[in-house]
Design goal:
alpha+beta
């Protein structure tokens, strides 16, 4: 997966409650990132296993 080439791939989802933040799955991992179209910038926030909610718990701790 290359988010710098295709920042909004076909399987992306915008995160509820976090405007401008998205998630995609890559194998057994979930990638949470922010995309700023105006600056053409992708910022990876978290990467975690898909089979648990830990990535979302970490995101809540980071962003509130």
């Amino acid at each position: 997966m290359s988010l710098n080439v295709e920042p909004l791939p076909a399987d992306y989802k915008e995160l509820t409650g976090y405007s401008g933040y998205y998630r995609v799955d890559s194998g057994e991992y979930r990638i949470v990132y922010r995309f700023d179209a105006d600056a053409d910038l992708v910022e990876v926030i978290l990467v975690g296993k898909r089979n648990d909610d830990e990535v979302y718990k970490q995101l809540k701790r980071l962003l509130g």
